[in-house]
Amino acid sequence: MKFVALLAVVSTIVAALKPQAFHAYKGGAITFEQYLKDQNVEGSSLRTAAAASLGPESLPTISGFYKQQVDHFGNQKGINGSSYFNQLYYVQDAFYKPGGPIFFYIAGEGPADDYSLRGGSFSLISHLMPRYNGMAVTLEHRFYGAGADPKNPGRSVPTADLSPESLKLLTANQAIEDMASFITDFPSLFPEKKIPADTKWITIGGSYPGSLSAWMRQQHPELVYAAHASSAPVQLQLDFWRYSYAVDEGLKFWADITFKNGQACVNGWTRAMKVFDTTLTSILKNPTALKEFKKKFWLSQLVDINDFTSYVGQEFGGTVQYYPQSEKVGSVTKLEYVCNPNSTFVNPKASDADLLAALQAFSIAKLTATGITGDDDPTLKDYNSVPITDYSYSNNALIWFHQACNEFGYAQTAQPLKGGLIEGWSAYSQFINVNQYEWWCQKTGLSKKSAAKEINANNQYYGGLFVSNPNILWVNGQYDPWHWLSNFKSAPSPADQDVLVYKNATHCMDLWGPLDTTKYYPRVTPEYENEFFGKLFAVYDKWIHGK
Ligand SMILES: *[C@@H]1O[C@H](CO)[C@@H](O)[C@H](O)[C@H]1NC(C)=O
Ligand SMILES: *[C@@H]1O[C@H](CO)[C@@H](O)[C@H](O)[C@H]1NC(C)=O
Ligand SMILES: *[C@@H]1O[C@H](CO)[C@@H](O)[C@H](O)[C@H]1NC(C)=O
């Protein structure tokens, strides 16, 4: 099965995740490198073109390893019985003047890097540091450095492997305490920087790190003065069916921008899902017919119906969460493949049989693009979900899904036919449901039981949407599916918090800072871009200068 991963390194993680059939989307900002690659932008020229006030590109950072406690809540030991492990950090002090704030750029479900701290555009931090004489730091989230550095495969990992026993140490709450210890010890790690005791620490993060940012402010107000929570899905939810509604909305938006046929494409695609679901339902109990049906998608080797339906019935999550170029079929985007004016999916006269055939052709095109040669290609066996047996650092794709399956839920399911935000079929097949998600979590061995109870307990503990301390800025992209689990319309009153919606934007795009939106996403007018970032910087002015 596959899911849209929440975050930054999504594409790497999803690609590395075998079985490939199940679509798991994490949250998280897409990496800047990935963005530039997807846009065919020559990264270095773009960064050189950045305003001089941002500093030259490629400013060096300081890096090191912080001696971190293995278990903040119990006595579980790490490698060789140790109570400590080495956690990677980066620091940028080029713009720092004592008394200035420290921006804690929170790393989450992927390896940490110093990209955002090196100056140049495509980084909000580049704008914040010179504006406020600030320093910036980042600390690798425990476990997520696994396998990232061939010379140090266990980087920031407290344990000798990624087994279920080891991953008990992987929780948001452990990560929060990691950051709290780091903030507490930071002035003594760098005495020469003369960091005053009353320094304002401001946490900043997008996606899961956005939630961590809000939770840091909530749980450690004595350490964290303010928090910027971008695309932060703080409302934990097992059955996140609004995700598929967001795919309806976002697919229409992107098809309108690209081909001016958004409604037609959404109508055709959802009709195709309906035909798929009704046909499949009618033959589920007939093994011969079922096998023939799967064969037309080149998927007859997928044994479990869950692996089959997740490959066919859960499309466009990445397109909508990021932008069309993040999901391709060979040389064209999935959006272009499905919504181009010549496609069967946008032809209102297409029959049910035409739509089913188009869906089969789409499946074959996707498989062909990855080198599959036919229904009998032996590599298709790998598309079956199987129990994970490799717990080495290199099997790092499992790390995020361990958290999702046990702590957060976030199953990106189809909205129900009745009682959803629309009536009837949406962009996802009705087979994409919470039972399927839990089946996958358990089949792979990532979890032992439903996470429903744990998710309720975590919402009680963290507060869900009601993260109540003042000085929190919530930012969400208008078309980001994850905004449904965040504070995007209003802040939980009566706290002094701020809420901004970034129009036409998707996941975490505010963290890229102001850009030339005639060339880069989000597609908004320059006037609107100025207005939006004017509001965002006004919140920082208020926090830092008190006005
Ligand atoms: C753990 O102990 C073994 C045996 O003494 C040693 O070879 C290894 O380097 C130790 N690992 C770490 C991370 O200290
Ligand atoms: C659609 O088909 C026409 C006629 O075959 C062709 O000229 C045009 O390039 C096609 N458009 C797309 C987007 O494929
Ligand atoms: C958002 O995109 C639409 C479609 O391209 C455009 O008409 C609109 O002006 C954009 N919104 C802003 C705020 O720029």
Question: What does this molecule look like?
Answer:
This protein is of the alpha/beta class. The protein has 17 helices and 14 strands. It has helices at residues 10-16, 32-38, 43-48, 124-132, 172-189, 208-219, 242-259, 262-283, 287-295, 305-312, 317-321, 334-339, 352-369, 398-408, 434-443, 452-462, 526-545, and strands spanning 2-5, 22-25, 62-69, 84-92, 102-105, 135-139, 201-206, 226-230, 237-239, 328-329, 332-333, 409-411, 472-477, 497-502. The chain has an 8-stranded mixed sheet, with helices on both faces. A two-stranded parallel ribbon has the order 1-2. Strands 9-12 form a two-stranded parallel sheet. Strand 7, helix 6 (208-219) and strand 8 form a beta-alpha-beta unit. The radius of gyration is 23 Å and the shape is globular. Mean pLDDT is 91; it is low at 7-29 and 41-53. It binds 2-acetamido-2-deoxy-beta-D-glucopyranose (3 copies). One 2-acetamido-2-deoxy-beta-D-glucopyranose binds next to loops.
How many β-strands, per DSSP? Answer: 14
Structural class: alpha/beta
Distance between the termini: 50 Å
Low-confidence stretches: 7-29, 41-53
Task: Describe the structure using short key phrases.
36% helix, alpha/beta, two-stranded parallel ribbon, 547 residues, single chain, 17 helices, globular, eight-stranded mixed β-sheet, binds 2-acetamido-2-deoxy-beta-D-glucopyranose
